[in-house]
Write a structure and sequence with these properties.
With about 90 residues, the protein is an all-alpha fold. It has a domain at about 40-80. It is built from 2 helices and no strands. It has helices at about 10-25, 40-90. Helix 1 runs antiparallel to helix 2.
Length: about 90
């Protein structure tokens, strides 16, 4: 296979591990404490912004989880195909 492209699942696994670590790190993001005693307009806007921010973090975390799973699956399929082709002598 000299000069040809060959799969290396360890590279993909490294990327999956990096994504999984980013996901784990983001799990530590907590909703900040906000003032619940006053009804100032600014406080209401802060509550709304905080909720939107936390929702966005959750969406990114879900997307990263899906990406990590997809990268792992694709790498496995490509490696299996490479092995199959190698056995056939292609």
């Amino acid at each position: 296979m000299s000069g040809e492209i060959a799969s290396d699942s360890s590279v993909a696994q490294s990327q999956v591990s990096d994504l999984q670590q980013a996901i784990a790190d983001s799990n530590g993001v907590q909703t900040p404490n906000t003032d619940t005693q006053t009804t100032l307009q600014g406080n209401n806007q802060l509550h709304s912004n905080t909720e939107q921010e936390m929702d966005m973090v959750r969406h990114f975390r879900e997307a990263f989880q899906k990406d990590a799973a997809n990268i792992g699956r694709v790498a496995e399929v490509i490696e299996a195909k490479d092995k199959q082709l190698a056995q056939k002598g292609e």
